[in-house]
Design goal:
The protein is of the alpha/beta class and 315 residues long. The chain folds into two domains: 92 residues, ATPase, nucleotide binding domain (Nucleotidyltransferase, domain 5, 2-Layer Sandwich), CATH 3.30.420; 184 residues, ATPase, nucleotide binding domain (Nucleotidyltransferase, domain 5, 2-Layer Sandwich). Helices cover 48% and strands 20% of the residues. It has twelve helices and ten strands. The strands form two sheets. The protein has a five-stranded mixed β-sheet. Strand 6 and strand 7 form a beta hairpin. Helix 3 crosses helix 12, helix 4 packs across helix 9 and helix 9 crosses helix 11. The longest helix has 25 residues. It is globular.
């Protein structure tokens, strides 16, 4: 019996799923394997560990895998794809295919049908496919200059917001109750083991930059006013890049509905982001039909592995 492996290599975790022709047999999770963010060594450790754990759970050996598809951020760059393929070849038989993380996500959300996905994990991007198979993307320009609405962006915006609120309170304490009553400050300090706001600012400005995405869980479902404003802003930013895709791929003079799917930990763990995203996107483009369930992209990688193996046999 042939076995297939799908991999979703993210900036926070790596998910590996093994299946046969018709069902999922095992799922395993390891550390981050986004080569651009964590480097080749860390990515290699995570991918090898994830593959090994998934095979153990499925009670097979890696050599029994007939075909592998891995979705990796940055895989549109030949050098990143080559590194990922080399890492996989060290533990898996060929064929293995490395594609962009948005490709496995759109496959998981829509199979071969048209639609738009928005990924909001450590980074963010919008990607879609029209009725003719044409694809396009928006956002995803990296944490230093973009990735609006991502976990990294949310963490950075939260640090900026509390420091700015502190400055405002110093000028006029009576007008800035949001900072005075904020529970967010202490949570951010604890998350980064910071002793004060000055220490927090110092850590935020370190080189290389700190892991701002590490702060996202602090904000995910916080009732703090400052946190809620940051999360609302994230939902709005994600809706804007989604609307760019719906308008680009599905002309506004056409009346058909446009399927949209949410992907990633920001959507999964922050209900306020999902709510604002839906409402803002419906305002920007009333044609959209948003899947209320957050889609798991690794299922798309497994489906693509099955299809790639079938094409190889037929070809």
């Amino acid at each position: 019996m042939p076995y297939y492996l799908g991999i979703d290599g993210g900036g926070t975790k790596t998910t590996c799923v093994i299946g046969d022709e018709s069902q999922t047999l095992a799922v395993a999770t390891a550390g981050p394997s986004n080569i651009v963010r964590v480097g080749e060594k860390r990515a290699c450790e995570s991918l090898h560990e994830g593959v090994r754990q998934a095979c153990e759970a499925a009670k097979i050996t890696p050599q029994q895998i007939a075909c592998t598809v891995a979705g990796e951020s940055g895989a549109t760059r030949p050098e990143i794809r080559a590194i990922a393929l080399r890492i996989l070849s060290e533990v898996l038989p060929m064929p293995a295919h490395v594609v962009g993380d948005m490709e496995i996500a759109v496959e998981a959300a829509f199979d071969t049908s048209p639609g738009v996905i928005v990924i909001a994990g450590t980074g963010s991007i919008a990607y879609g496919r029209d009725c003719l198979g044409n694809t396009a993307r928006a956002g995803g320009w990296g944490f230093a200059i973009g990735d609006e609405g991502s976990a990294h962006w949310i963490g950075r915006k939260a640090v900026t917001a509390v420091l700015r609120a502190s400055d405002c309170e110093a000028v006029n304490p009576n007008r800035h109750a949001a900072f005075t009553n904020s529970t967010l400050v202490g949570s951010l300090l604890r998350a980064w083991s910071a002793d004060s706001l000055d220490d927090l600012a110092g850590k935020a400005n370190m080189l290389p930059p700190p892991d701002f995405a590490q702060l996202f869980p602090v904000l995910a479902n916080s009732k703090d006013e400052i946190a809620r404003k940051v999360l609302m802003n994230a939902g709005q930013e994600l809706a804007r890049i989604a609307a760019l895709m719906t308008r680009r791929l599905f002309p506004t003079n056409e009346s058909q509905s446009v399927p949209v799917a949410m992907i990633g930990g920001v959507f999964r763990h922050a209900s306020l982001v999902r709510e604002i995203f839906y409402n803002e996107l419906r305002t920007l483009d009333a044609r959209v039909q948003v899947n209320p369930q957050v889609v798991e992209p690794v299922e798309g990688a497994l489906r693509m592995a099955r299809r790639a193996a079938e094409k190889a046999i037929i070809g």
